[in-house]
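Private note to self, pasted from the team thread so I don't lose it. Backbone tokens:
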């Protein structure tokens, strides 16, 4: 079945719909959906997180309510599976291949494609990931693909393990039906390309900060955000003092792809600052805003 959706330029671009899509494309740029980049839809906790979370953007009135199952909410590391599937679907569509929201995933390809070690308990952990993604219930008025989802939904609608490891505990192959809400976002290219080094970030907050920097900085050289607003945007459960401390640690480690991060303590409240690693673009922007004195002070604060 051939259908159509708007391309990034607003034109109708046809795509082929099939019953089952095999996510086996070797080269695929990593695509992240705009809604989960903007809103804290995934837990940052590495322990089971069963607390209901709510977030509302006071400007746009967009809101989300995340209700975990007894196994805990889907985490930002569980999101790797959705990034893998979404990136594969978009790459297939752009190559003129048939696509579907019912996707067959080879676990080894998933693990290596997201820079995970395909050994040890990796295959057994996939099942817990699937359970959390399916069990986390989301209610939101965020529109994807021109449609507002009016019912609660999970990140994945269903999954079926079709091949297991010899001990019967590990998942070697699985068929997954992704949510209609996410699929609509993919069909309408409501995504941004992110750096593959994102998968190498080992801290939950680092990953979330990179997503926010990529979403808000875009092609700009600098983005500033009040630290309390940043805490809310990340979905962190820490109080402001501990959140600030963790931000300082991330500044020192300096691991974010594409961006440096700094803390501007000269303003009240303090501001988290992201700025590009492209020195030429940074110098151009600082010249445009007459910001060299401010930036020198910012670097002194960060190195103190």
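Design output:
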């Amino acid at each position: 079945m051939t259908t159509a959706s708007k391309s990034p330029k607003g034109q109708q671009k046809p795509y082929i719909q099939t019953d089952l899509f095999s996510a086996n494309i070797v080269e695929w740029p990593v695509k992240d959906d705009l809604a989960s980049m903007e809103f804290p839809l995934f837990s940052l906790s590495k322990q089971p997180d069963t607390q209901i979370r709510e977030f509302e953007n006071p400007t746009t009135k967009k809101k989300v309510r995340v209700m975990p199952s007894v196994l805990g909410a889907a985490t930002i590391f569980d999101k790797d599976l959705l990034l893998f599937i979404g990136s594969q679907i978009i790459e297939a569509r752009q190559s003129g291949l048939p696509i579907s929201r019912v996707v067959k995933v080879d676990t080894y390809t998933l693990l290596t494609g997201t820079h995970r070690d395909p050994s040890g308990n990796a295959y057994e952990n996939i099942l817990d990931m699937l359970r959390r993604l399916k069990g986390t219930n989301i209610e939101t008025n965020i529109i994807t693909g021109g449609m507002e989802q009016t019912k609660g939904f999970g990140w994945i609608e269903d999954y079926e393990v079709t091949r297991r490891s010899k001990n019967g505990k590990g998942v070697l192959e699985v068929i997954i039906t992704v949510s209609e809400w996410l699929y609509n976002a993919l069909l309408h290219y409501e995504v941004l390309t992110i750096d593959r080094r994102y998968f190498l970030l080992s801290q939950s907050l680092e990953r979330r900060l990179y997503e926010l920097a990529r979403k808000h900085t875009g092609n700009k050289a600098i983005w500033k955000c009040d630290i309390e607003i940043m805490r809310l945007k990340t979905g962190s459960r820490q109080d402001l003092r501990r959140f600030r401390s963790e931000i300082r640690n991330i500044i020192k480690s300096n691991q974010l792809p594409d961006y440096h991060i700094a803390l501007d303590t000269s303003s009240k409240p303090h501001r988290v600052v992201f700025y590009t690693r492209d020195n030429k673009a940074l110098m151009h922007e600082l010249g445009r805003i007459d910001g060299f004195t401010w930036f020198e002070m910012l670097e002194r604060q960060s190195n103190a």
